[in-house]
Amino acid sequence: MKRQQGFTIIELIVVIVVLGILAATAIPRFANVGTEARIASMQGVAGSMNSAKEVIRAKWYAAGSTTVSTVTTVDGTSVAVTSGAAANSGYPTAAGMVNALNVSGNISCAAAGNTTTCTPAGFAACTVTYDDTSGAVSTTGLVTANCGG
User: Fold this and answer.
1) Of 7, 27, 34, 63, which is most buried with the most CB atoms under 10 A?
2) Do the Cβ atoms of 149 and 46 come closer than 8 Å?
3) What is the mean pLDDT of residues 30-50?
4) Axis crossing angle, helix 94-101 with helix 33-63, rounded to the nearest 10
5) Is 41 exposed, middle or buried (0-12, 13-18, 19+ CB in 10 A)?
6) pLDDT in tens, 96-122
7) Structure confidence by residue, pLDDT tens digits, 56-73
C-alpha cells in the first residue's frame, strides 16, 4: 500500500472557508482604527489648547500688569492676550492661540473672530474649538460621524 501525503482538496477548501469567516469577522473591528486615531489626535490638540491657555495666563500674571497685551514664550513666540479686568483677562486671543499652538502635519488651526478652530485635513466637521471670550475649549465636534466613521 502506498502512503498518501498532503491534503485533500476538501480539506483545503474547508481551511479557506474557515479563514474567510475569521477575516470577515475581524476586518470590521480594525476598519475603524483610523477614525479612533483621528479623534485621539484631536483630543491631544484640545489638551494642548488647555495647556497653552494656562501657561500663557500664568506668564501674564507673572508680568504683573493687567495692561499687558502680549506674552512672549520661552522660544520667542509672541502671543496676544486679552487685557483688562475681565474674567477672561490673560487668556490668549483667538489669533494668539494659533501662535501658541504652532501645530503642523495634517492638522490646521485658524482664528476667526473670537474662536480658534483646529481641524484635521479632509474632515471639516471634526473640530476642536477655543473661545477667547471664556477660555473654553470644546471637543463636541469629535464624534465618529464627523471624524470619518
Assistant:
1) 63
2) no
3) 88
4) 110
5) middle
6) 999 998 887 889 999 999 999 999 999
7) 988 888 887 777 888 888
For residue 31, what are the CA distances in angstroms to 24, 28, 124?
11, 5, 21
**Confidence at residue 1, expressed as pLDDT on a 0 to 100 scale:** 61
Domain membership of residue 119 (yes or no) is yes
Give the position of cell 480594525: 30
Residue 120's domain spans which residues?
Answer: 11-138
Tell me whether residue 3 is in a domain.
no
What type of residue sits at position 144?
A: T
pLDDT at 88 over 80: no
Amino acid at 51: S
User: Residue 41: which region, alpha, beta or left (left: phi > 0; alpha: psi -120 to 50)?
Assistant: alpha
